[in-house]
Amino acid sequence: MQGSLNFRAGLLSLLLLGCLLGLWHLATFGTAPVAKPVAAMTPEQIEYAKLMGKPVDAAPAAAKSGFPTLTQMGRTVVHHLTEPFYDRGPNDKGIGLQLAYSLGRVGLGYLLAALVAIPLGFVIGMSPLVRRALDPFIQVLKPVSPLAWMPLALYTIKDSAASGIFVIFICSLWPMLINTAFGVAGVRREWLNVARTLEVNPLRSAFEVILPAAAPTILTGMRISMGIAWLVIVAAEMLVGGTGIGYFVWNEWNNLSLPNVIFAILVIGLVGMSLDLLFARAQKAVTYAD
Question: Looking at CB atoms within 10 Å, which of 66, 143, 252, 264 has the fewest?
C-alpha cells in the first residue's frame, strides 16, 4: 500500500513538473533575443557589448521578455555542471566552489550552536530553576531576526566570513535549545524513577535514559535549525559579499544574468531539500514506538 502511494505521488509530481515546464515554454516562446547589426545599435549598446566581452557585430537585441527560455536555461545548467569548480578570480567562481563556501559556513556555525544549545537545553530541561531564570532572556532574543545581528557582528568581529558564521550560530541556537529543553523535560518520570531505584549515576542516566528518550525532539529542533541556517546564509552572503551561493545570486543579478539567478535558486532549493532529507532520516532512525 505504501509503495503504491509513493508511486502515484511520484507520477503526480512528474505531471506537475511537466505542466510547469509547459507553461514556462508557452510564456517565453518567441522571446529569445536575436542578433542586431552594428548599424542598428545605439552607441550605448555597442559600449555595453564591448564591456561584456561580446562581439559588437553579434550583440543581442533586447528580448520581448527578459525571462529566459527553457533552451537558455538548459545551456546555463550544462555550463555550470560541466565545470563547477573553476576559479577565475574574485567574481568568477564555479557553482561548486560557491556552494562549498556556503556549506562550510553553515556547517561551522551550526556545529558551534549544537555544542552550546544541546548541553544547555539539557540543563534547562532538568532544572525548573534554571528554566525560569533563563526564559526571559530566551524569549527576548529568540524573535530577533538573525540578519539584525549582522551589523553588530561586522562591527565587533570585523570579518565578513566570521560574521556570517556568527549569524548562522545565533539563528541555529534557539530551535535546538528550546526543543532539547522540551524533550528533556518531557521524559517520563517512571523511567527516571527506575534509574534512581537502580542507583544509576546522573551522567549515565543522562546518556542512557534521557538522551534516547529526548532524541526525536532534539532532532526535530536540529532539523528546524538547519533549515533556518541554510535560509539565512544566502541572505547574509548577499549583504557581506565575497563568496558563497548568496553572493553568487546577487552578483549575477548585478550582471543582469537571469538564467544564472534562476539556476542558483534551483541549486539552493535542491541543497536545502537534501539537508532536510538527511535530518528526516536521522529523526526516523531515533524515533521509537511506545
Answer: 143
- Using the structure block, give the residue that is written with the C-alpha cell 520581448: 64
CA atoms within 13 A of residue 147's CA, in its CB half-sphere = 12
Identify which of 57-61, 70-74, 204-208, 229-233 has the greatest average pLDDT.
Answer: 229-233
Tell me which of 123 and 37 has the higher pLDDT.
123
Q: What is the rounded distance in angstroms from the CA atom of residue 98 to the CA atom of residue 153? A: 22
Contact (CB, 8 A) for 184 and 214: yes
Backbone φ/ψ region at 244: left (φ over 0), alpha (ψ -120 to 50), beta? left
| Cα separation values, 192 from 41, 137, 181, 206, 218, Å | 80, 29, 16, 10, 18
Three cell numbers at 65? 521578455
SS3 at position 35: strand
Give pTM, 2 decimals: 0.80
Classify 248 as helix, strand or coil: helix
Handedness of CA 38, 40, 46, 52 (dihedral sign): negative
CB within 8 A of 40, min separation 6: which ones? 61
Q: Show the cell assigned to 218.
A: 532534539
